[in-house]
């Protein structure tokens, strides 16, 4: 499989049908694992990296993990394919960096619910990604993958610290739990800052899903745990799943109801203006498209706009990204050309929907 | 006739079909006349004003001027009706002012090509207003009206100064010639300031058609002569018609072609975004609607948008104004309600067109 074949649809995690999918776009769990007997990746030489890759490649694509897993050699992939995988949240940005020419690759489930990077910051980074609020399902799935891998591979483990990782913040369980949340109402009412402060006090990281820095383009926020040491996996997951996420969902839903009740005309105006621009513009940048899609998504979720379904909107968050856009149109483009192509694609997909 | 009956269409001058109507919305000529034997209006008492009105009312509505002229007593009209007439450019804003309770009125042609105000700044203000570049036709029409009036009424006239008027700047011919121009491309390219400077050097006044101050909402500019003394009517008209206006039209058309050639995608983007917002927004203010209509009008004129005709766009410049909007919906509304009603009316009229 080449990444190019993925382009005209989104993975399972953008299906938009999971529980609480009005607010929770997707649930993600990631484990960090390292092979005993090898230095951490940043301490290895090329020969050792090849050895790690050789030890892992067959293991991570085996049938017991998934029926139709595929292997993509990142050092062989072209720049656009790498960027495509980053946009789909299947590999990390540093892993895709073309300056990094060392042997590395990723195993992907055909439905993109899992991705296992070999020779990223750790020897193995296992990720499970599912649509909506499915942390328990993701936890079960990643547990099964971890069990299979552990049968075949000898992981670096300390009785005192737990799993050993290149960066101490990942040591212990090596687990990172996160959800991608769509919080347009908290953004519109200005309450998002309160939520961010509260999350920081709970030692959670809140960052924008798209775009660098603190700005969350498209009102999409990733909330994740920051510490993995001193708690069991179950405790980390439990706090997150039973307290933090439901609370943020409740705040967002309150804010949505407030907007409907107190600022109905302004709310509808935002939603429909976004629709008008998405279906009419001839030039469209990445930041703007995310903001407009966010407002349309809010409109669909609140039943105030029925001209499109959630799946189409979710997919457009992805398909309007630069690499996807270029893959879809079949040619590399300059930014100015991309803005024109993006506007055209939006009109086509939204008029047809 | 009450002004309310005019509301759901525009007068002849917004028909959008006259010569050069891509750029020239309308042509207007105005004459100032005063009755001999009465002081100017600002020096009259109420009794004298009644006498002037009595002397003029029958004359200005007589058949020889027009078949179906109507008389509207402005001191009796309600505030919304007065505002409606101001928005249609049939009476002046001071004339409509409710604080002015003195006897006054206006004779209107059924097609709104002429309006004769009695007891405005001068005893008589005669205006002819026609769509497109029709200054010669307007000049002929106003000449005929003036001739008829002069047969019955004794106008204050001096061999030395010509017609005498309340304000010296109107004395002489008492004529003011103006065109309403749509100059969106000169605005977009920033060259409008050059045109304004050049016009000022030719002793012409350039001002926005809608809105106070120097801003021209909707890119609609009124260009008019400032001096009426020392030139014949024919000279004033000739300069204006053969030199000034054709030059501005040529500049605007050059700017339009430049935009098509050098900034095609950006131009289409503006045009189509305007269309998207006009047909989608749920809240719409007066300034914004004029700007968006301006860009749509440019799009229609350049053949880049064919989802609406010019007449509908021209009419919407008028029908979205506050008094028209309230008359159309049949009830007085607060500004916030008007913004919602305006957006609704736009969607209805543009989807149906």
Short overview:
Chains A, B: It comes from Phycisphaera mikurensis (strain NBRC 102666 / KCTC 22515 / FYK2301M01). 2 copies of one chain form a homodimer. Chain A is 45% helix and 15% strand.
Describe the structure.
Chains A, B: Belongs to the ATP:guanido phosphotransferase family. Chains A, B: ATP binds at residues 26-30, 89, 125, 176-180, 207-212. Chains A, B: This is Putative phosphotransferase. Chains A, B: Keywords: ATP-binding, Kinase, Nucleotide-binding, Transferase. Chains A, B: One of its GO terms (biological process) is phosphocreatine biosynthetic process. Two copies of one chain form a homodimer. Chain A is α+β, with helices and mostly antiparallel strands. Chain A has two domains: 3-255, 2-Layer Sandwich (Creatine Kinase, Chain A, domain 2); 264-352. Helices cover 45% and strands 15% of the residues of chain A. Chain A has twelve helices and ten strands. The first copy, chain A, has helices at residues 46-60, 79-87, 93-96, 135-152, 184-189, 192-201, 233-262, 264-278, 286-301, 310-319, 322-329, 335-352; strands spanning 24-33, 70-73, 105-108, 114-118, 124-131, 157-158, 162-163, 175-182, 204-208, 220-225. In chain A, the strands form two sheets. In chain A, strands 2-3-4-5-1-8-10-9 form an eight-stranded antiparallel beta sheet, covered by helices on one side. A two-stranded antiparallel sheet of chain A has the order 6-7. In chain A, strand 3 (105-108) and strand 4 form a beta hairpin. In chain A, helix 2 packs across helix 11 (322-329), helix 9 (286-301) packs antiparallel against helix 10 (310-319) and helix 11 (322-329) packs across helix 12 (335-352). The first copy, chain A, starts with 23 loop residues before the first strand and ends with a helix. The model of chain A has no long low-confidence stretch (mean pLDDT 90). The interface between A and B is medium-sized, with 19 and 19 residues.
């Amino acid at each position: 499989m080449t990444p190019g074949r993925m382009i005209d649809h989104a993975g399972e995690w953008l299906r938009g049908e999971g529980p609480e999918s009005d607010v929770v776009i997707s649930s993600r769990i990631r484990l960090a694992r390292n092979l005993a007997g090898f230095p951490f990746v940043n301490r290895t030489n090329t020969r050792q990296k090849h050895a790690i890759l050789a030890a892992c490649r067959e293991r991570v694509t085996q049938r017991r993990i998934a029926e139709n897993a595929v292997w993509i050699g990142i050092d062989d992939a072209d720049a656009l394919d790498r960027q495509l995988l980053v946009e789909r949240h299947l590999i990390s940005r540093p892993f895709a960096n073309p300056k990094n020419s060392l042997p590395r690759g990723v195993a992907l489930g055909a439905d993109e619910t899992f991705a296992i990077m070999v020779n990223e910051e750790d020897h193995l980074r296992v990720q499970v990604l599912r649509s909506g609020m499915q942390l328990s399902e993701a936890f079960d799935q990643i547990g099964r993958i971890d069990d299979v891998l552990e049968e075949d591979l000898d992981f670096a483990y300390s009785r005192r610290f737990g799993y050993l990782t290149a960066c101490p913040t990942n040591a212990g369980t090596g687990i990172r739990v996160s959800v991608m949340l769509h919080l347009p109402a908290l953004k519109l009412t200005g309450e998002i800052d309160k939520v961010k402060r509260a999350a920081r006090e709970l030692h959670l990281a809140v960052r924008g899903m798209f775009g660098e820095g603190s700005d969350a383009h498209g009102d999409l926020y990733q909330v994740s745990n920051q510490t993995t040491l001193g708690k069991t996996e179950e405790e980390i997951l439990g706090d997150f799943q039973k307290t933090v996420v439901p609370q943020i969902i409740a705040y967002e839903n309150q804010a949505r109801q407030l907007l409907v009740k107190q600022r109905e005309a302004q709310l509808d105006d935002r939603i429909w203006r976004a629709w008008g621009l998405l279906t009419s513009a001839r030039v469209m940048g990445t930041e703007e498209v995310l903001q407009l899609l966010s407002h349309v998504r809010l409109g669909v979720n609140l039943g105030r706009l029925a001209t499109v379904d959630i799946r189409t909107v979710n997919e457009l968050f992805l398909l309007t990204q630069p690499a996807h856009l270029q893959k879809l149109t079949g040619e590399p483009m300059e930014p100015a050309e991309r803005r024109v192509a993006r506007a055209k694609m939006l009109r086509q997909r939204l008029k047809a929907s």
